[in-house]
Amino acid sequence: MQDDARSDSPMPAESFPTDPTGLLEASRPALMELADGGDLSLHVGPVAKRLGDTVVRMLGYNGSIPGPTLKVRQGSEVTVNVTNDGDLDTTVHWHGLRLDNQYDGVPHETQIPIPVGGRFTYKIRFPDPGLYWYHPHIREDYTQEMGLYGNILVVPPEPDYWPPADRDVVLTLDDLLLEDGKIAPFSVSETTHTAMGRFGTVLLVSGEPDLALTARPGEVLRLWLTNTANTRVFNVRLPGVRMKLVGGDSGRVEHEEFVSDVLLAPSERAVVDVLIDRPGQLTLEHRTPNRSYPLASITVIDQPIARSLEREFQAPRHAPELAAERERLDAWLAAPPDKTLALVAEMDDLTPQTGDGPVVYACPMHPEVTSEEPGRCPECGMKLLATTPPPAGYTCPMHPEMTSEQPGRCPECGMKLLAAELVSQAADHGHMNHDEHAHDEHEHGHGSADGIEWEDDMVEVNRLTTTANMHWKLLDPTSGAAGNEIDWRFTVGDRVKIRLVNEMDSDHPMHHPFHLHGAGRFLVLARDGIAEPNLV
Predict the structure, then answer these.
(1) Does 171-330 match 2-157 at the fold level?
(2) What distance in Å separates the CA atoms of residue 238 and residue 287, rounded to the nearest whole number?
(3) pLDDT at 354 (0 to 100)
(4) CATH class of domain segment(s) 171-330
(5) What pTM was computed for the model?
(6) FRET partner for 533 with CA separation of 20 to 30 A, picked from 245, 266, 360, 458?
(7) What architecture does CATH give domain 2-157?
């Protein structure tokens, strides 16, 4: 259901708007409880956002960053009327929900994009309990980064589905790249930073760089966490209190467990209960192997509560529906996969072609045949074509100490070796520009045994990569099809097993989240051949 009205002011051709002058200041997200059959108006538009001493132009749903938190009952259906007064065409994707395909928000596949000045009506059902979220699906690198995201809390009918808690605290985790007090520019024509994603220099929790919360001794707080960053993995800790993992992407976990931290990939959710046992000051943290970042402060006020839930908190529970799945797990593990999908990165040569320096002539059919003068190939007689001379050595941008006289891959991380001159120039101009409140744990180094890229360790090289020279591909090794050529067909109600392979034989091996649009519930059965210890 779409209204194709368009605005009269075209988007600038060279850059997105950045001036916050005259815009309303972004508000904090409202909690909107919607009954079955309810209606919601969702407006996309620019806002002014204060980040410390800086005011920047961002985008918000209903004037807030994040957008409003939607609280609905499981099994209900609501109507969402979206009006787009943003910077470019948009859709809204309802991440993790099982819903009609026409309302899934995939542009040109399930929906015509909503033009600037246009409207669209979504019918959204909520068949499963838990934490979900919504965001655009056109130029997410820009629109989502600018603040277009919000949470959805689906409440189950069973009062004891979740363990008891005193309060819900719904939080989004994000980061934003600032340069010289401004949001680093985005290209209108193409996505940049495609090799590693756009790591931010300021961390935002529910849209705030310095979120402050309060609690009371004896309270159990339920933290509903969603990673809305485009590439950063968050490792969340709350030193000084006990944390209990109770839920994840698709509702509650198989068995609640006490944890010291919770790892969240982009788009991933986690539900964590924390027991506040004494007054004082607490700091919610993002902890990497090398750095510690404060996310939010929690002031524990010395005020009594009516009844402590400590006894219930200390008794982890089990989910019977996932225990039943565990009984069937061995058969699924033994069965061959129905489909296999490989994730591969291909990076073009990033060496700038300046046209200066000596020219080398080479045969296109026999590249090893070269000459300083034009002529013909002695092997096949083909005309030698002018090329630039090969780079004087190759280097890994992540491990500059790894060099080679020939192109290849880094033995440390598997990344494609780039021209040494390019890597050297990037190192001279590169900058980490970490959040000023971050604390170093020890000397910084790329990666770790967990295979996660915690920071952008090749800033300038990453900045050079675009969708034109960095190609992330999904491959079906069985059929040989890639990307949109993959044509898998299933019947409603089918249960299928899909094997995902993150290929090391790739120009930039790195961690990858994976999401199936509209498929709703799925179970991770095993990782690298080891059965998943806690289903969700």
Answers:
(1) yes
(2) 10
(3) 53
(4) mainly beta
(5) 0.86
(6) 266
(7) Sandwich (2.60)
Q: Characterize the bridge pairing of strands 269-275 and 242-248.
A: antiparallel
Look up residue 71 and give its two tokens.
């609280």
Q: Please state which of the ranges 7-16, 52-61, 283-292, 335-344 shows the lowest mean pLDDT.
A: 7-16
DSSP string, 144-205: TTTT--EEEEEEPSSTTSSPP-SEEEEEEEEEE-EETTEEPP--SSS-B-TTT----SEEEE
For residue 166, give the nearest of 117, 114, 216 by alpha carbon: 216
Pick the closest to residue 454 from 308, 235, 270 (CA basis): 235
Residue 6: band (very low, low, confident or very high) from pLDDT cuts 50, 70, 90: very low
Please report, for residues 74, 102, 115, 320, the alpha-carbon distance to residue 144 in angstroms, rounded to integers and kept in the order given. 26, 21, 17, 37
SS3 labels along 213-249: EEECCCCEEEEEEEECCCCCCEEEECCCCEEEEEEEC
Examine the pLDDT at 365 and tell me if it is beyond 70.
no
pLDDT score of 8: 43
User: pLDDT tens digit string along 249-262?
Assistant: 989 999 999 999 99
DSSP assignment of 444-502, as one string?
--S--TT----S-S-HHHHHH-BTTTEEEEEE-TTT--BGGG------TT----EEEEE
Structure tokens given for 422: 């390019």
Q: Write down the residue that tokens 């004891």 correspond to.
A: 160
Residue 208 DSSP code:
B
The identity of residue 139, as a single letter, is R
- Percentage of the chain modeled with pLDDT above 70: 86
For the chain, the domains span 2-157, 171-330, 352-390
- Alpha-carbon span 245 to 168, nearest angstrom: 14
The full length of the chain comes to 536
For residues 25 and 64, the answer to whether their CB atoms sit within 8 Å is: no
| Burial environment of residue 392 by CB neighbours within 10 A (0 to 12, 13 to 18, 19 or more) | exposed
Give the tokens for residue 128: 């499963």
Which H/E stretch holds residue 117?
none
